[in-house]
Amino acid sequence: MEFESLKGFRDFYADEESARREVFDTIRETARSHGFDEVSAPSLEPLGLYEVKSGEEIVNETYSFEDKGGRDVTMTPELTPSLVRMYAAREQEMSKPVRWFASPKLWRYEQPQSGRLREFYQPNFDIFGAPGVEADAEAIATADAVLSNLGLTDEYELRVSHRGVVRAVVSSLGVDGETATAVHRTIDKSDRLNDDEVRERLVDAGLDDDGVETVLSLTSLDGWGATDELLGVIDGDEQREAVERLRALDEALEGYGVDTVFDPSVVRGMDYYTGVVFECFDTDGDLRAVFGGGRYDTLVEEFGGPSTPAVGFGIGDATLELLMRSADIWPAEETSVDYYVAVIGDVRETATRVARSLRDDGEEVRVNVRDGRSFGSQLEHADAVGATKTVIVGERDLADGEVTVKDMRTGEQEQRPVEGLV
Amino acid sequence: MEFESLKGFRDFYADEESARREVFDTIRETARSHGFDEVSAPSLEPLGLYEVKSGEEIVNETYSFEDKGGRDVTMTPELTPSLVRMYAAREQEMSKPVRWFASPKLWRYEQPQSGRLREFYQPNFDIFGAPGVEADAEAIATADAVLSNLGLTDEYELRVSHRGVVRAVVSSLGVDGETATAVHRTIDKSDRLNDDEVRERLVDAGLDDDGVETVLSLTSLDGWGATDELLGVIDGDEQREAVERLRALDEALEGYGVDTVFDPSVVRGMDYYTGVVFECFDTDGDLRAVFGGGRYDTLVEEFGGPSTPAVGFGIGDATLELLMRSADIWPAEETSVDYYVAVIGDVRETATRVARSLRDDGEEVRVNVRDGRSFGSQLEHADAVGATKTVIVGERDLADGEVTVKDMRTGEQEQRPVEGLV
């Protein structure tokens, strides 16, 4: 009987896992170097956790089911609700700000496509308990450091905005409910639409000509120079505060050497963002967001905790892989081992001692576990598993108290006293 | 609105995750040092995958459901079926033996209790394509190395047997079907039952007096010396082969310096084991198995692959934690960071540059992201997050081009030129 894995789910064989792990190790090291403490949350949560703020969209696209005890549960489609639940439960014991990193597997029941799988990893960084622009900057600088530590340079672009910008526009239009949602969504998608398409969607949503022109003036803005023009489109307290915050952010990020672009079409789909929002795209504009995040200052309270400012972001592993591959910096997909121990003849006990001793010295060692295998076949295997060196333990050499160490790259061989190796 | 995690699922806060990660890093390093390549499999698989060989028991105790596309799926309750599926799919491309390590989360819908949760981690080691006792020994020696690398010494005991031993007894009794299954289970549980309880179960299963006495003679055996007596209980080809294999295993393990005990009550619940089986228990006998495994030479073929000998084992994370805690070697549950950067006054830009520079040097750095926080409160926070040193960036020091570096353990402070740090 033959089986296949589910569509949208990946098997990671040793070669692929080795590359993936190298990338995730760099992400984890960057989290550590930026003072984020790792945490982990369950992979299954009560469905109710996602009904608070994630919007219906996410609930419809999850692996949700009733468990054997009759509970409605969901395989975690995103991490933030779990983190907020955890934070709210123990916030009194923790010294603030709290900086959390986590690197969970997540699941969404969506149509699998390039850069979008049903099972994926999403490294996640959050800072709880710091309201200021310094925390926004620290979060964005950490995201930037992840990409530059992975070897990316000018292949990506960081675009930032503020929810206040869109809120002010929607409020100036005097719309709410479904119309407001449609305006939100259209602005969010405007980077991938032409003006006519934007206009059509806005008219469909019920906006009048003035309203349509206001939104088009907004979505046509791009770059830090445009923040003045933004105040020309909508002037008001909320808009001015948003612009002020964004300018302070740009200045704070200069200290980190991080460049960003102001882009009012950055909205982020999640309902829970409240302030600064940011996304990172490939410079060519071919891919989905490499990462995205923002400030969510009301969510902890909505989950039963005290009023807590928070800012965070998540990295999409599939898009990151596509970007690194297109930049030709995805790690080599190959396995390796320091030593292969070949066994020739009745020398099993010595071979075992050699392997033990090398392992005790911290070496990675594969020892032949198939007695009677030919020498040639053992060397081929050593090569296939990526051994740097092969220690050949053979009856004849051992009679002189020696083994042969072969460098698998150069082919050079040297005799070494077995006592030196055990 | 307040939420709790599901019963049997754990939140790992930073302190706890730090300890858990230290343990898992050691397990991963041991896998590497023993030449196992890491792989990873999906967390959701078609239900059919578990119906092949795992027995009904496991299917009844899983998180199984119908996905939105009408497929019967299961959150993976064990890893072996996925690995065997993966091996069968690509075995032709791989040089044998294949050694795989994986460290997945797994899920079972069981009653949560000490050492048994509904969500758990299970490091898993497998060798495919090596039929001999050398591979059995390598697997068991790797399991032993995991525990000794974690710092365990005489707190645990490795017990081994062979499925042929039980098979021979069952076959000598001339029973099959449910009776055979009941005999299997009773032998498996006999370590935790007294003779009267064993007798009762066997009589209930339908065994006659002679049969009962045969099984009791088997379960009373213990230790390598008992392998001769074993042949006194049942003599036959299968039994002799099993005893021969076990003796060869004991000898092979001597080369690794690994002691084991022969214990015919080691059966392992999984239906798919075919030969040598082993379990590791705490010496006090209070806990469930720390790890267990064995040889499963027919499973790959049953999954559509070619006939492939295989041996492997899985480690139970919850029991391992209980054992390490009782031995007082569970890692300290605390977070740490190399540097905290305190910000006093209007020095944000310099503080950012100091943090960047330390991070570029590979240090783990938390920088204050709350402007205006008092000096005392910053030092308290540095202490709470486990900072080794605090760099105090203050307006007054900076006027002289200096910062203060405080050793958080000794309290010693020294002035350092800021240029040396940036």
Account of the protein in words:
2 copies of one chain form a homodimer. Chain A has 17 helices and 18 strands. Chain A is of the alpha+beta class and 422 residues long. Chain A folds into 2 domains: 14-326, Bira Bifunctional Protein, Domain 2 (BirA Bifunctional Protein, domain 2, 2-Layer Sandwich); 337-421, Rossmann fold. An 8-stranded mixed β-sheet of chain A has the order 1-5-8-13-12-11-9-10. In chain A, helix 5 packs across helix 11 and helix 7 runs antiparallel to helix 8. Chain A starts with 13 loop residues before the first helix and ends with a helix. Chains A and B meet through helix 1, strand 1, strand 2, helix 4 and helix 5 of A and helix 1, strand 1, strand 2, helix 4 and helix 5 of B.
Brief descriptors of the model:
Rossmann fold; alpha+beta; eight-stranded mixed β-sheet; five-stranded mixed β-sheet; 18 strands; BirA Bifunctional Protein, domain 2; 422 residues; 17 helices; homodimer; elongated
Strand content of chain A: 15-25%
Largest beta sheet of chain A: what is the strand line-up?
1-5-8-13-12-11-9-10
Approximate helicity band of chain A: 40-55%
CATH superfamily of the largest domain in chain A: Bira Bifunctional Protein, Domain 2
Oligomer: homodimer
Task: Supply the CATH architecture of the largest domain in chain A.
Answer: 2-Layer Sandwich
- If you compute it from the alpha carbons, what radius of gyration of chain A comes out, rounded to the nearest whole angstrom? 28 Å
DSSP, total strands of chain A: 18
- CATH domain fold name of the largest domain in chain A: BirA Bifunctional Protein, domain 2
The overall average pLDDT of chain A, rounded, is 93
Largest protein interface, residues of each chain: A-B, 96 and 96 residues
Low-confidence stretches of chain A: none
